[in-house]
Amino acid sequence: MRKLIPLVCASLLLGSSVELLAQQRLVKGLVTEADGTPIIGASVIVKGHSSVGVATNLDGRFSLNVPSGANTLIVSFMGLKTQEVNIQGKKELKIVLQDDNNVIQDVVVTGMSKVDKRLFTGAATKISGDKSKMDGIADVSRALEGKAAGVSVQNVSGTFGSAPKVRVRGATSIYGASKPLWVVDGVVMDDVVEVSADALASGDATTLISSAIAGLNADDIESFQVLKDGSATSIYGARAMAGVIVITTKKGHAGVSRISYTGEYTYRLKPNYNQFNIMNSQQQMSVYREMEQKGWLELASLSNASSSGIYGKMYSLVNSGVLRNTDAERAKYLRETGEYANTNWFDLLFNDNVLSNHSVSLSSGTDKMSLYASLSAMFDPGWTKQSSVNRYTANLNTTYKINPKLSVNLIANTSLRKQRAPGTLSQGTNAVTGEVSRDFDINPYSYALNTSRVLSPNENYVRSYAPFNIFNELDNNYLDLNVLDLKFQGELKYKPLKGLELAVLGDIKYSGSETEHIIKEKSNQAESQRAAYTAAILKNNPQLYQDPDKPYDLPKVTLPVGGYFNTNSYSLTAWDFRASASYNKDFGQDILSLFGG
Q: What's the predicted TM-score (pTM) here?
């Protein structure tokens, strides 16, 4: 009897193992698109067993243990039609997912509501986020460039944060405003500072915060919807007279959780003079010699000039006794120092840099809840001297189905940007001539394009009556910019009857920026405030103070030592609340659609 008990236990254990193995079977398969391309990350779930599923690997293949009695797999992927596949009696599967055209074409998202395209009477274009994404371009405001008919995008500044000129309804307006309205997930994005479309190319410091959507991560965007005609005005009022661009961000989907990483590395080359029709140093010196022969570059006129180059430097050396004042010595100096220089300002002021952009996202969901979360970081060491950008974003989008009739959607976005740029002042316009100019302009691109190539990068010349060297100025005159954007929104939807939907949306937004303009003591801008070396300079230097009550007195120096520290802060806090109701009824050949809010 003692020998029988172990034998019986062994039989029971063996029987249990056989029974467990009989409860499930292994199914393998390949998931592809219509053209045969393997789909990476497609969700494969056993119908009726939502916790049993896998995602396809890098080759589009999967292997899944299917419980006994289950005969159907649900295969899905974003942008493709979900399929239910019968696996009864099959161990190897090949599944082809077709494009889901309804996802892109059949619904128009206005920001207020979703309208069947057959019922939408306006002009609208929809572009998916994947198709609009531009590799190496972190600012999503440029994503529509060349993607939508009738939409013009002009990148007037290469600096991050500066909005491009976007034209949706023509290039002119009798009202003076032709910028489209940006709407993200149903919420209007207001600019923290108002910059006109014409002022975007000004180069002023405020243009660095002129893009309302510079804090969005391109990987978080599901689609763009461009509303082009008067229908946009009927929805958003006068603000939409230049068109509306509606952005819909990604949401989570039911099925297998997915973690995605996107890494971009963009290598940017320096500009070069072969791209422009600009004289070299020998050609420029021949022009200078002709000007000298006509008496336009004489010692008397350049000694007290507000700005001077190689001839001013030569006369300064003559006055100090470093250079002999003979025709031969002056010709030798101009030949060796200027004619042979051929300075490549583009090579010296620009960098061959690598911009990197990293994004990590999580997408998950069940029948009751969906979740999408992402983090991103962009690092731009700078294409020019004293220009760099670091941007960080975080995004959370959750939807809860409280019951079949009631659901709530919560969204939180934040972005932080730290940026450095060369110092700049606002441009001014001459009231008489209409000439536009900027004092102390040290934009590297403008300097390389407009500065004589006979100048040496290691010498100091004269600008605004003070010593000037572009590299010294970039080191001592720059902007530091900090931008923080926050947005929280919630939407409650209730469907009491079939076809009827009641919705309430509320949001709060905060955008704050602080710009610090550091002008150090050794900068040309600070030195010009105390340039009073001669009576002629003292009289003509516009940076000195002239007492209006004593017009016959000589101007005075207001900054004998030191520099400047200017700070400008902008902030915007806005909140919105909207209640709406929509009703849609399909009568076969006729469709009734009502919306109010």
A: 0.78
